[in-house]
Design brief:
Length: about 200
């Protein structure tokens, strides 16, 4: 099994990435890494910043993702600021409340949104593999469901929120699941890099 380091401090994200990468015979571990400042203007730029820093620090191939919610009625916000949307130290509940408040006058037909995920893997020799995934949906009027994390309770796909789906159901349609499957396909093509 190939060992990769995962550049994240988010335990929920770690579980999701481990679950999706395990069938690819990729074992992921976390390292004590400093938080990288996400100064990129896109999810892809931020994923690269995190993966590159983790690879440099550990000497191992490093996988990082950057993801977030883009809402049409808010001109793509919160976007790359999804985790910081309600300010430093805010909880998922704080972010959801701010989003719902910003959307309070938006009618159902105009509540389109999408989750976006960019994956970047940087190898010690400088090789880089990237992949993206998206999941279209819409924003609910109130949180629904008890599972998931982040904006999952207010992100609807086919009338169910991400927080109402099982882990398996979510992995099949989520932006992160799609990005990781695309990443796995790229990795498979280039097995000589890490095999």
């Amino acid at each position: 099994m190939t060992k990769f380091v995962l550049a994240t401090h988010n335990q929920n994200k770690l579980k999701e990435l481990e679950r999706i990468l395990a069938p690819l015979h990729i074992s992921v571990e976390t390292a004590q890494l400093e938080e990288v400042e996400e100064t990129g203007k896109s999810f892809a730029e931020n994923a690269f910043l995190k993966a590159e820093a983790a690879c440099r620090k550990t000497g191992l191939p490093a996988v990082a993702d950057d993801s977030g919610l883009m809402v049409d009625a808010l001109n793509g916000a919160p976007g790359v600021y999804s985790a910081r949307y309600a300010g430093a130290g805010a909880s998922d509940t704080d972010r959801i409340e701010k989003l719902l408040d910003a959307m309070k006058d938006v009618p159902e037909q105009a509540r389109k949104a999408k989750f976006v995920c960019s994956i970047c893997c940087v190898f010690p020799d400088g090789t880089k593999i990237t992949a993206e995934g998206e999941c279209p949906g819409k924003i609910a009027f109130a949180p629904e469901g008890n599972d998931g994390f982040g904006y999952d309770p207010v992100f609807l796909v086919d009338r169910k929120s991400f927080a109402q789906l099982t882990s398996q159901e979510k992995d099949e349609i989520s932006h992160r699941g799609r990005a990781l499957r695309a990443f796995a396909a790229e990795l498979e093509k280039r097995k000589e890099i890490y095999g």
